Amino acid sequence: MLTRIMVTPEGNDSTRQRILDAIRAVPRGEVASYGGIARRSGLPGRARLVARVLGENDDADLPWHRILRADGRIAFAAGSRPFREQAKRLRAEGVAVRNGRVQMAEAEETLDAAVWAPR
DNA sequence: AGAATGACAGGAA
DNA sequence: GTTCCTGCCATTC
Predict the structure, then answer these.
(1) Which of A2, A29, A81, A104 could, after both became Cys, cross-link A72 (CB 3.0–4.6 A)?
(2) CA nearest to A114, candidates A42, A27, A34, A10
(3) In this structure, what CATH number is given to the domain that contains residue A97?
């Protein structure tokens, strides 16, 4: 039916797939923001969608721990179980985590270069 | 239909 | 440097 085709917004699986791919593209030892992933997925301004997809994800191989808020803070409540787990995984990759946050200004640029730079 | 919620972001204070 | 407030998007009550 036409209605069915026309109504499909973006909550479909292909959109989620693009987001997951962008997350998988983040190199080990690097980090990215929710908004950054959204932008690279062709979905500027939909950081919260990225967060939702991550929350519903069940793939153990997905590097979910490399995704932080734009200011470098871990998105989970400080001290919570997932919060500690994320900090642990990041440090395991050599990422400095200080008071639940990392300096990601440089990391973002480095990442952009790694992902987008032609050379 | 209106309000509340959340792994967000950006700018103001 | 931080904390606060507003805007956003999608989903759930």
Answers:
(1) A104
(2) A27
(3) 1.10.10.10
